[in-house]
Amino acid sequence: MDAKHAAELADLDAIGQAALAASGEVSAVELLDAAITRTEAARGLNAVITDLFDRGREQAAALDQSGALRAGESGPLAGVPFLLKDLGASLAGAREAMGSRALRDHVATQTAWIVERYLAAGLVVFGKTNTPEWGNHCTTEPSLFGRTANPWSPDITPGGSSGGSAAAVAAGVVPAASGGDGTGSIRVPAACCGLVGLKPRRARTSFAPSGHLLEGLAVEHALTRTVRDSAALLDAVTGSAPGDPYNASLPHRAFLDTLSQAPSPQRILIATGSPFPAPATDPRVIAAVENAGRTLESIGHHVEPGAPSFDTDAVADAISVLHNVSNVQLYNFAKSHLGRDPREDEFEPSSWVMMREGFTTAGVDYADAIDTIHAQTRQFVAGMSAHDVLLVPTLLAPPPGYAVLDQPRGTTRAFFDVEFAHTGWTTMANVTGWAAISLPLAVTEDGLPIGVQLMAPKETVLLQLASQLEQALPWAQRRPPGWLGAPVS
Any idea what the Cα angle at residue 216 is, between residues 215 and 220, rounded to 5°? Predict the structure, then answer.
């Protein structure tokens, strides 16, 4: 496909591309060819680290030949090219390195439940995206594949751990790509790359055939440019797999359908500072959050300043313990794969610090960390009892540069102290299991994106509020310098 047509298709979101395929105006193969053309043009971003073009073409051709797209028998996403994060979205037969040198030649033997749901929805998988080792970092610059560039600027990180997916979506390679979020790994890249990043509530999706990650802190979803795409993707993957340890109650209506309905007036608590020790929030971020608050108030919601309290030291200590043990799991997985003990130089230095501490973590310490997470969740929720939604920054400052959020600090706790000094409230959505969404509601004077975050127990109200903000403070025509679509007129 020629570059001009590929660029024109990039301007459409996933639902828009699927509508073209359903109308017969383009085929699934043509949509894929356009995405591959854009992928080749975006090699400098280093966002896509595993090409699966042949399997994508085979899947797209099968969709076209079945006639299901044109017969209207498929969902709102069928035929759309899609990329998988190289962590938490395994595809049998495809390389799955998880950003680790120790797993550089590992090939997945099973397809993740969530990927099966993507495929069942008709999404055409044709590649995997860059991620830091084991999702440990809120930046994407693994030594195995190298750093992913941010389409907005070569000097700032695209965030992490879903940074490869975020960069690909922000540049227009694809309209959406998968991600996962354990302490902000969908929302931080969304903020860095000017995207919509929804972390669903705990257990909204399944990690099958694996167990849950980080004692339920982590959850899978996607990076998108529009709210409706995020809702449609959530509809595609909502549910639990047989044998899951717990599940979230199913929504009464499809998430996509609820966007046409305004939520009842919400009681919104707004906080611009960080609950964790951190420098003062950047004034530009404060202005973005406050403007979002005023906008929501003008729509009819009740907004007032305040914040729930919790023991920040206890949370940071517990998060550190859970990550230490999780990284020992990575070590053991790598040992099984390699058939020998992995070497220290086969891991990132910061990961090795976590493994080293994890080797000596006692079972009672791990149990205490889980209890702490539950106790602090109850304290947080008690502080929100008179309100429905929390409105806060996603990052406390505009996107940082590289070699900031992945550096070893001597201890895991010191590592997370630095992370939380940048992310502020983000990790509390993981601790509590609440849903949270980052929206690209502002830019700096030099055009860099600023993300604003909403948190609530369930996704429906967040998506409805996000849709209202998308209409009131539109970002659709805001494109990065690295945009591969048609120029904005």
Answer: 135
